[in-house]
Amino acid sequence: MWRIGLQVEGGRYFDQLAATENGFWLFPVAPGELLRWVERTPDWLMMQSAQTTGREIEAASSSRP
Description:
31% of the residues lie in helices and 29% in strands. The protein has 65 residues and is an alpha+beta fold. Strands 1-2-3-4 form a four-stranded antiparallel β-sheet, with no helix packed on it. A hairpin with a 7-residue loop joins β3 and β4. It is elongated.
């Protein structure tokens, strides 16, 4: 079992995560804090980013003397 601790801007801490198909919920440690929804980046956008990064690495390595 893994235990995680997440800190986001503003210094708030979250200790539980619930993943869904479209994103995930963060559950705060401190009482009275609100849940936080984080939308997941779509697969097609992540794939496009990975392909672009791969081409940039190939171009950089082939331009070396």
